């Protein structure tokens, strides 16, 4: 479990696994390779350990994803309240994946299909998903990013982020963090749309609504985890 927990934040070399878990190098290697045989862990193109496909298969087998169950109705409410498309993002290695969305029904809108992989170097959701990572990962991810360390400090302070034309020309967005039962940021909820409507200060319009939506999803997850 220590190895799997360490890989939750993304790919890791053996040296990184040893550093995060505190396990002896031979033990960390033996466990990671054993998990690889069972497809709980796999390797990326650089030979680093990453979470494997078996975890996804087990999640599907439960018939329920608690995060999606909690988020989908909230996304619809957020869309209706703001009049903009709403999305839910999770980090997966070096990208963020749209795992749920509630699209604006008509008019000019920012459409992000479920399953889309977007970069971690631009956009308000990327800022949120990176802001609470460890220092080393933040430093590495900021290379070539459209935002900087000061931006992430501000995100942690106010618990929401905004971007204007970072990911795509003419698109603005606002995002806020969703925390799991352990307090770890596990996802970001966002609204996005054309700058013409969201303006160059989209947080002034929608930060309160997006933050409230994130808090509502977080509360639902914590309630699901609480013992009956």
TrEMBL record:
<keyword id="KW-0804">Transcription</keyword>
<keyword id="KW-0805">Transcription regulation</keyword>
<feature type="domain" description="IclR-ED">
    <location>
        <begin position="54"/>
        <end position="223"/>
    </location>
</feature>
<dbReference type="InterPro" id="IPR005471">
    <property type="entry name" value="Tscrpt_reg_IclR_N"/>
</dbReference>
<protein>
    <submittedName>
        <fullName>IclR family transcriptional regulator</fullName>
    </submittedName>
</protein>
<feature type="domain" description="HTH iclR-type">
    <location>
        <begin position="1"/>
        <end position="53"/>
    </location>
</feature>
<dbReference type="GO" id="GO:0045892">
    <property type="term" value="P:negative regulation of DNA-templated transcription"/>
</dbReference>
<dbReference type="Pfam" id="PF09339">
    <property type="entry name" value="HTH_IclR"/>
</dbReference>
<dbReference type="InterPro" id="IPR036390">
    <property type="entry name" value="WH_DNA-bd_sf"/>
</dbReference>
<dbReference type="InterPro" id="IPR036388">
    <property type="entry name" value="WH-like_DNA-bd_sf"/>
</dbReference>
<dbReference type="Pfam" id="PF01614">
    <property type="entry name" value="IclR_C"/>
</dbReference>
<dbReference type="InterPro" id="IPR014757">
    <property type="entry name" value="Tscrpt_reg_IclR_C"/>
</dbReference>
<keyword id="KW-0238">DNA-binding</keyword>
<dbReference type="InterPro" id="IPR050707">
    <property type="entry name" value="HTH_MetabolicPath_Reg"/>
</dbReference>
<dbReference type="GO" id="GO:0003700">
    <property type="term" value="F:DNA-binding transcription factor activity"/>
</dbReference>
<dbReference type="GO" id="GO:0003677">
    <property type="term" value="F:DNA binding"/>
</dbReference>
<dbReference type="InterPro" id="IPR029016">
    <property type="entry name" value="GAF-like_dom_sf"/>
</dbReference>
């Amino acid at each position: 479990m220590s190895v799997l927990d360490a890989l939750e934040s993304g790919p890791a070399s053996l040296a990184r696994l040893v550093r995060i878990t505190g396990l002896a190098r031979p033990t960390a290697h033996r466990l990671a390779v054993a998990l690889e045989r069972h497809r709980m862990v796999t390797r990326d193109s650089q030979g680093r350990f990453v979470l494997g496909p078996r975890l996804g298969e087990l999640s599907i087998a439960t018939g329920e994803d608690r995060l999606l169950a909690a988020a989908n109705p909230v996304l619809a409410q957020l869309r209706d309240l703001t009049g903009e498309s709403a999305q839910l993002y999770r980090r997966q290695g070096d990208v963020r994946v749209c795992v749920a969305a509630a699209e604006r029904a008509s008019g000019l809108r920012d459409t992000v299909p479920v399953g889309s992989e977007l970069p971690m170097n631009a956009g308000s959701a990327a800022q949120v998903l990176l802001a609470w990572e460890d220092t080393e990962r933040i430093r590495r991810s900021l290379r070539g990013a459209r935002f900087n360390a000061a931006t992430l400090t501000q995100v942690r302070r106010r618990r929401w982020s905004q971007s204007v034309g970072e990911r795509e020309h003419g698109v603005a967005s606002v995002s806020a963090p969703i925390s799991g039962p352990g307090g770890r940021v596990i996802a970001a909820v966002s609204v996005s749309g054309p700058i013409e409507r969201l303006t160059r200060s989209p947080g002034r319009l929608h930060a309160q609504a997006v933050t409230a939506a994130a808090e509502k999803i977080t509360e639902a997850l914590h309630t699901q985890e609480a013992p009956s």
